[in-house]
Amino acid sequence: MDDIQSWWEVPSIAHFCSLFRVAFNLLDFDIEELEEALLTDGTEDSGSSLLQELIVRLLCGCLGNNGISTFNYQMFLRRLFRQKCREYGKENPFNSDIDFQFLPLRTKVEILHALCDFRLDAEDVLDVLKNLDSDSLRVHPLGYDENRSAYWYFYGTRLYREDYPKALKRKKKKAREKKHGRKPRSESESSEPEMGCGEWQVVCYTESDWERLAIKMEDSQSKEERALHTVLADDFLPEIPRLFEEKERLQRKRLLEMQPRRQSSRLEKLKQIKEVEKKAQVKDEISKKDDSDKKEKERIERDARRAREHRAKLRSRSHTNSECSSSSQMDGTTKPRAR
């Protein structure tokens, strides 16, 4: 779980689907649900069809084909990535006929994120998004701390922090200043980071996490951290309790909705197990009957062989006796009688 929470693409995918849910007819889910679906995909514990349904909807939009379903999406997914990877000169994650659910977890996340990008390349995008303000589609950090780590909020109840290694900061800063013909600034001066370049982690899971972070920033000597505190205190802390209540309500609702499906899935698995056991039992009974029939056949053949051998012995004995009798008679006719 720690690894997947350090991948910026996961909240980015969830935010994309939340932002364009109505425009692109996508699914309604939160970041935690996406993580769970990714972690359980392709395992026996997978009780969610979230990934399959999400891929199908993204593919339908990318290809303008409403005939794509959970039964045939693998073919369309491989075909799209073959085309796009050739177009952009990227390595194709589907370098074999392996299905999506059997790919490494990291590769699945990269494919989903790429699908979101491909969806924005579709022909209908300009028409569908013409009434949306382009600035409202961009995500900016809420603020920074004294280490120049960026704090990102997408939606829901989580807050992410992106830490930038010092070497990366220096490299990016010097490259940008050289490109614009400016004299490189000192290391202490700040530079605007780009999302996805640093190391990510979740810093706020619970209401208490949000409150503790706001208090920490309020007492800071850093001007940037005090500015971040103002954003947290004014825009988020008043809404956080309501967001958590709404999250719990939706989780209860989804659990209730999933119960019949999970029960049905368990019943289906039990049914399959019973069918397998029944087939095995029938096969065992047939095998036992075959063994019994074979033994009976062998017994009959053995008895018949013994009977034949017995009859042969009787015939042999009778033939021997007959020969002895004939010999006796012959001896009696040739032998002279006593006077």
The average pLDDT value, as a whole number, equals 82
Helix and strand string, N-terminal first?
HHHHHHEEEHEHHH
Report the sheet with the most strands, covering strand number, pairing sense and barrel closure: 4 strands, antiparallel
Discrete helix count: 10
User: Which structural category do the helix and sheet elements fall into?
Assistant: mainly alpha
Q: What best-fitting shape do the alpha-carbon axes yield?
A: elongated
Strand content: under 5%
Span between termini: 128 Å
Number-wise, the strands total: 4
Radius of gyration: 41 Å
Sheet with most strands: strand arrangement: 1-2-3-4
- What are the segments in which pLDDT stays under 50 over at least 5 consecutive residues? 184-190
Summarize the amount of helix as a percent range.
55-70%
Biased composition (Polar residues): 319-332
Biased composition (Basic residues): 170-183, 307-318
Biased composition (Basic and acidic residues): 256-306
Region (Disordered): 170-194, 256-339
Q: What structural keywords apply?
A:
single chain, 339 residues, mainly alpha, four-stranded antiparallel sheet, 4 strands, elongated
Tell me briefly what this model is.
The chain is mostly helical. The protein has 10 helices and 4 strands, in the order ααααααβββαβααα. One of its GO terms (cellular component) is CERF complex.
Could you explain how this protein is built, in words?
- By secondary structure, the chain is mostly helical.
- It contains 10 helices and 4 strands; from the N terminus they run H-H-H-H-H-H-E-E-E-H-E-H-H-H.
- A hairpin with a 5-residue loop joins strand 1 and strand 2.
- Helix 1 (9-19) packs parallel to helix 5 and helix 8 packs antiparallel against helix 9.
- It is elongated.
- Mean pLDDT is 82; it is low at 184-190.
